[in-house]
Design a protein that fits this description.
5 helices, alpha+beta, six-stranded mixed β-sheet, about 40% strand, 2 domains, Beta-lactamase, about 210 residues, elongated
Length: about 210
């Protein structure tokens, strides 16, 4: 079975991973073989914030609609399954989006390739390496809860050269209360090659003592 959450995850992957193709979902009509076809997502006509995504219907799932909309740079995805008719899925989707835009807001916490921390590099030609993330990091939380967002980092205990840019060395965890909102890999932001023979020998001894 596929859940509403599964559909939301797929929608996010489509939007973030295939922006060129995602544009197709906001096309209201097109003509093929002299036949005009209309997009069945009525929200494209009813709400200017909406730019996708997909309608559906089966006997077991009922009338379904996965919708995405943008307001003031905040994008929301809503998923409705099990509606009794087309009007039902449209109405429920509008209510979900209205609730989300009214009571939630999105914040940018970190930028791609921003240094979030530095870590010691053993046996390397440099003593430290900068760690960060490979894409901008946003979170969406209830309005007024920005100060309650907590960020923490879990980093590998020992980083040993050679270090390659983009390699994972831990994670940054974003929480609101006890809920984990985002867990994103921490990556090396630069290469660190192996140090000379003497440096490697000294660090090998130090690692035995650590």
């Amino acid at each position: 079975y596929t859940t509403a959450r599964d559909l939301a995850i797929l929608a996010r992957a489509l939007i973030e991973g295939f922006p060129k193709y995602y544009e197709w979902y906001q096309v209201k009509e097109y003509t093929y073989n002299d036949i005009r076809q209309y997009n069945r997502n009525r929200l494209l006509w009813l709400d200017q914030r909406v730019d996708g995504i997909k309608t559906g219907h089966t006997e077991s799932a009922g009338y379904c609609l996965v919708t995405s909309a943008v307001e003031d740079s905040m994008r929301l995805v809503s998923v409705v399954v099990g509606a009794k008719n087309e009007n039902g899925r449209v109405s429920a989707s509008r209510k979900l989006l209205g609730y989300g835009f009214r009571f939630y807001e999105t914040y940018k916490l970190y930028s791609a390739n921003e240094q979030l921390t530095t870590m010691r590099v053993w046996k390397g030609e440099q003593d430290n390496v900068s760690l960060g993330i490979d894409q901008d990091l946003y979170v969406t939380v209830p309005r007024g809860k920005r100060d309650d967002i907590q960020a923490s980092m879990s980093v590998d205990a020992k980083i040993i050269a050679p270090v390659s840019t983009g390699k994972h060395y831990g994670s940054v965890d974003i929480k609101l209360g006890e809920e984990v909102l985002v867990q994103h890999p921490l990556i090396a932001l630069a290469d660190v090659g192996e140090g000379g023979l003497w440096q490697r020998l000294v660090d090998s001894v130090m690692l035995l003592i650590e």
